[in-house]
Amino acid sequence: MESFSTKPFSANGREYCPPNQPVAVICLDGSADEYLDEALARNLMPNLKQISRAGYRGMARGALPSFTNVNNSSIVTGVSPEKHGISGNFFLNPENDEEVMMNSAAFLRADTLLAAAEAAGRKTGVVTAKEKLRDILSAGRTNGIAFSAEKAKEAKKGSHGIDNAEQYVGEGTPEIYSADASLFVLKAGCRLIERGDADFVYLSLTDFIQHKYRPTDETALSFYQDIDEQLGKLMAAGAVVGATADHGMNAKQCADASPNVVYLESKLSDEFGAGFRVILPITDPYVHHHGALGSFAVVHAPSSADLVKVMDWIDHLEGVTEVYDRETAVRKLELPSDRIGDLVVLSARNVVIGKTPEHHDLSHVATGLRSHGGRYEEMVPFIVSEALNPTYRQKADGDVRNFDIFDFVTNGIQA
Amino acid sequence: MESFSTKPFSANGREYCPPNQPVAVICLDGSADEYLDEALARNLMPNLKQISRAGYRGMARGALPSFTNVNNSSIVTGVSPEKHGISGNFFLNPENDEEVMMNSAAFLRADTLLAAAEAAGRKTGVVTAKEKLRDILSAGRTNGIAFSAEKAKEAKKGSHGIDNAEQYVGEGTPEIYSADASLFVLKAGCRLIERGDADFVYLSLTDFIQHKYRPTDETALSFYQDIDEQLGKLMAAGAVVGATADHGMNAKQCADASPNVVYLESKLSDEFGAGFRVILPITDPYVHHHGALGSFAVVHAPSSADLVKVMDWIDHLEGVTEVYDRETAVRKLELPSDRIGDLVVLSARNVVIGKTPEHHDLSHVATGLRSHGGRYEEMVPFIVSEALNPTYRQKADGDVRNFDIFDFVTNGIQA
């Protein structure tokens, strides 16, 4: 019988004891639980249904802001953004006053548990739909495989741990705005495990489908059916599978389906004068998804501003649900103090925060905006393919976080 | 063919246009969505499964605090607690400084839509598991039927609109700490509609099962199976059925399964001296459920207290997630300003707020506390048995509230 390293390893103060079998963790990007519910109601996810009974399906609390880079970083480090430093997809770098993508591992302040797993003898593999995540997810690893669906054709042995990724997976590089971008990732993960090229795998999907389709839309249902098929293949290959999400997804639109936006920088300028910079950490290269509109923003105020007054004024804006100064945001939202401006702002279940009307290209979201970033996309599915041991069954009755998923699949299953 | 009044009626600024068929709305007390998921995964809710496909199943945002009286009052009035005045199960009445149950219709400040439906010619019926709700739910009605499972044997034609309720339902008065207390309500509702004694019905269950059992426990699964059977009977009787919940439910315990409590009055006294009164609005006669421990509390501070300082101190307590002064609680949580003390406090997904250790009898929750009251029990299922019309299908993409359920079942279904 094939043997897999069961040597314990640690990362960021947590210990992981991997089982003698392949381990696969999936980040089902943007998977509000309703997507699973609707697919299950139509008998499209038989493997997930089986997991509900034989394994574990519950809900976990994600990290805020409920964005992709933030939560993927939490999942692979096992800690909150306060500790790993990734506070968004995008930020105003205080070191040079530049607004930049937060895609580089250089911004990551915690070690990844993937690197620790590799050092302990596991063959690690990372496949991500979006190229933007590859660098962060690869941090600290020296041998493992790491490539994206988006740039599959560019994968090279030296830099990505694999040559000819398209051939390996058996599919061409998918269009990033597609279901295939995610399915490519799952298929790659199956192949890695089936062939024994990796036995400790993290698979991170993309939320194009969820941004564009309701849970009951045929396209979404079909997508989850396809996900379920891959879930079955991973289990059939002997893997214990953990699945969670980086964030949920809600419609953020007015009655006429136009985007329901609070243009915060405009409003601040109108009320208090120039000098306010509103940064939208949802910003990423994938503008079709959301037009850079999410339910979380940070405000950099001019030094002359009366922050208490500004905070109170923002708190009274229709659609704003929470406003925190920096210290409180660190304490309540577990955010890194130097990367969140002076104030952080969250908006309602059906409201997004924008910068100025001119800043946003709404052409791709004009007739329907589904997005995330706030409190109402914080709760996500949390799935383990095998039965939990008594300790973790008890632990599941606590405030489980999505970034506990590697803990559960390594330490939490029955021997 | 039998005909039902389709005369529109209004309550609290909302108009309702009932369909020419019986209408039944169910409050699935304490039904976190996970209860439905687990029962569905085991094929125990075929009628709900069918509704997911042919009707509508989604999530709605309840009223805060996520307690029974608050949300039942919202459901039957269609408005927030700020407008209907019911801020808990229990409060400190500022008019006479007495701590009392908030069970009386005398505390209700809004008309019920049930009274308006009755006035418009519908035959209304209310059946509630807990006697504590009967008075509020009956407010303003003159002819309709209203009785509780708990006190079924005491129902009289003159006061309850029905004699011999036990015989009518075909079952004896159930024990309040039981699944039967809820099932009696559903059976009564079916009987009322099947016999034509009521055609506009509100059925409010009790959450004993959810307080005591996880979604995967056999007792909970069996309970939801029984609920589903009654759901099917209501639909078979021709009713359009709406179902939602007053609140969700989460485990609130430490690793050893003992209650995870912040004793707020004790802590305030230790820090700031005597004079603070912490009121726990979850308090009700059903102590077996929760030991008066929930995730929401109000603080009445002595006049000498520095409220800003006290608020900030509470906000720093481990386990506390939100603290608001009165004005902010009214604005952000839609609460009635005169019934919430000086400060309102919410606690985390796995934390409850207590008064003092001496105040609580923990004997019924010593080895497992599941409770509610806070932000993490705010989101609840929202179910309509028939397909939504295009306007309401669009509306469902907004920030739907649990107290929109009568709106959806009357105005929202396809003609």
How many alpha or pi helices of chain A?
A: 17
* Major sheet summary line of chain A: 7 strands, mixed
Distance between the termini of chain A: 16 Å
Question: Residue-averaged pLDDT of chain A, rounded?
Answer: 96
User: What's the multimeric state?
Assistant: homodimer
Stretches of chain A where pLDDT falls below 50 for ≥5 residues? none
Q: Into which percentage range does the β-strand content of chain A fall?
A: 15-25%
Q: What Rg of chain A do the Cα atoms give?
A: 21 Å
How would you describe this protein?
The structure is a homodimer of 415-residue chains. In chain A, helix 6 links the parallel strand 7 and strand 8. The first copy, chain A, is globular, with a radius of gyration of 21 Å. In chain A, strands 4-19-10-3-9-7-8 form a 7-stranded mixed β-sheet, sandwiched between helices. Chain A has a 4-stranded antiparallel β-sheet with strand order 13-14-16-15. A two-stranded antiparallel sheet of chain A has the order 1-2. The first copy, chain A, has 415 residues and is of the alpha/beta class. Chain A starts with 8 loop residues before the first strand and ends with a helix. Chain A contains 17 helices and 19 strands. In chain A, helix 1 packs across helix 11 and helix 9 packs parallel to helix 11. Chains A and B meet through helix 1, helix 2, strand 4 and helix 15 of A and helix 1, helix 2, strand 4 and helix 15 of B.
